[in-house]
Design a protein that fits this description.
Monomer. Associates with the 50S ribosomal subunit. With about 425 residues, the chain is of the alpha/beta class. The chain has four domains: about 100 residues, 3-Layer(aba) Sandwich (Rossmann fold), CATH 3.40.50.11060; about 70 residues; about 180 residues, P-loop containing nucleotide triphosphate hydrolases (Rossmann fold), CATH 3.40.50; about 60 residues, Ribosomal Protein S8, Chain: A, domain 1. About 45% of the residues lie in helices and about 20% in strands. It has a six-stranded mixed sheet, sandwiched between helices. Strand 8, helix 11 and strand 9 form a beta-alpha-beta unit. It is elongated. Bound molecules: guanosine-5'-triphosphate and magnesium ion (MG). Guanosine-5'-triphosphate binds next to helix 7.
């Protein structure tokens, strides 16, 4: 699939690196680019002369697709279609991202999210189409497709059906997160711009995955977290277990962020991002080998995406330090200090400083509490003792004739759960006495 990349900027020179990477990720080979620096033309996005140049380039190169980095309105899309050689497909940044997501969506949830995003993209266009058709001001506009008011109603009905199903999935996942917290896990999430190295870091942090033990309890535990030098390699979520003594930590890797995403697209992926928003700690992974301006922009994008709903503390991880020397790293740390105070620098590829990051994770997570419980001997006592063994770090168990003394360290949630279960034992032992 051959495509020409097009980009307009208000001023300066247009950087096409990211849109080329996105097009490549969708499977296109790029046979050329056309860029322009001027304000947007309402009819064509480009100025007319530039749009004609684009048409000529398509003609020369037999590209079948034009990929615009700018958002195209339905009217611009239609006019460009008229101007370009017959059969040329015009897509913009957002439809391109949707195309990538559509290709990679494997789970039911990911497929629903893509479908929802497509419908949300189409809705305002269908509305525009029907209102334009009603006013009958743009006769040429009808060429976009059959005018059909019921399409609008259809889209709305589908959106509400998919939203319901996704909410159901969210509830199940929320439930799973709570169960994990209750059973003593700390939840750490990896967030960051696409291609920053999140999946590679996941494998470093959580190398020893005990998947067999957890298969039933944790259906999203996977043995692989694929890494590739390609945008949006990861779409869903992968969770692995890391032992940061005495803690049991679940680390979740998920979809990367990207700039200029419309609200409806982020919204459609809300439930995937919930694994980030609802974590106990977020590691914001940054590719430190890029130019500092670019890093800055990407971190701002990540913060914008996170700050809307995130509640957890954030630790910035400057990744890929194997690609910069010490001096450069120091300069970049300084330059980013306002945005990313107290970062940890690592190389997820070589493993440099990963130990330090694990220590930092331990420091940032809520402290474990020490507790000593005296349990009366009843039929259920041993089951509570073994629950404590499973969910806490047990220091000592002493069995007397009528009671059991247990001292342990655990997350606050586990301590309070153990206390309340101990209280129940006390009640049943008094009642049966
Ligand atoms: N040199 C170097 N390359 C790295 C490092 N960490 C990751 N990479 C490379 O960067 C590319 C992206 O890594 P991924 O782990 O797939 O990144 P990601 O953030 O999961 O990306 P998406 O899932 O696509 O959003 C891959 O080619 C990795 O091998 C590192 O510390 N040093
Ligand atoms: Mg990934």
């Amino acid at each position: 699939m051959s495509a020409i990349v097009a980009k307009r900027v208000d001023s300066g020179t247009a950087d096409t690196t990211e849109i080329r990477d996105l097009a490549a990720a969708a499977g296109y080979t790029i046979s050329g680019e056309v860029t322009q620096s001027r304000r947007a033309d309402p009819a064509l996005q480009f100025g007319e002369g530039k749009a004609e140049e684009l048409a000529a380039r398509v003609d020369e190169t037999d590209a079948k697709t034009v990929v615009f980095d700018n958002r195209l309105g339905p009217y611009q899309m239609y006019n460009l279609g008229q101007l370009l050689p017959d059969g040329t497909e015009v897509i913009d940044r957002f439809t391109l991202i949707l195309e990538i997501f559509g290709q990679r969506a494997q789970t039911r949830k990911a497929q629903l999210q893509v479908e929802l995003a497509e419908l949300r993209y189409e809705l305002p266009r269908a509305e525009a189409k029907s209102s334009l058709a009603k006013r009958d001001e743009h006769p040429g506009f009808m060429g976009l497709g059959e005018y059909d008011e019921s399409r609008e109603r259809d889209i709305k009905a589908q959106i509400s059906r998919i939203t319901d199903e996704l909410e159901q999935i969210e509830r199940t996942e929320e439930h799973r997160r709570e169960r994990r917290r209750d059973s003593g896990f700390d939840l750490v999430a990896l967030a960051g711009y696409t291609n920053a190295g999140k999946s590679t870091l996941l494998r470093q942090l959580a190398a020893d995955l005990e998947i067999d033990e957890n298969e039933d309890l944790h259906p999203d535990l996977e043995s692989t977290a694929e890494s590739q030098d390609r945008l949006f390699t990861t779409l869903g979520t992968t969770t692995r277990r890391a032992a940061i003594q005495p803690r049991d930590v679940l680390v979740t890797d998920t979809v990367g962020f990207i700039s200029d995403l419309p609200h409806w697209l982020v919204e459609s992926f809300k439930s995937t991002l919930d694994s980030v928003y609802r974590a106990d700690l977020v590691l914001l992974v940054v590719d430190v080998s890029e130019p500092v301006d670019e890093i800055h922009e990407k971190v701002v994008t990540c913060h914008d995406t996170l700050y809307e709903r995130n509640e957890a503390p954030i630790v910035t991880v400057l990744n890929k330090i194997d690609r910069v020397d010490d001096e450069e790293l120091t300069e970049k740390r300084e330059a980013l200090s306002g945005l990313a105070p107290g970062p940890v620098s690592v190389s997820a590829r070589t493993g440099t400083n990963v130990e330090e990051l694990l220590e930092r994770i331990d420091d940032e997570l809520p402290d474990w509490l020490e507790e000593r419980l005296v349990l009366p001997m009843t039929d259920d006592t041993m089951s509570l003792v073994s629950w404590i063994h499973d969910n806490a770090n047990v220091n000592d168990v002493t069995y007397g004739d009528e009671d059991v003394h247990v001292s342990f360290e655990a997350r606050p949630a586990v301590v309070s759960r153990a206390r309340s279960r101990a209280g129940e034992l006390e009640r049943t032992s008094v009642e049966s006495a």
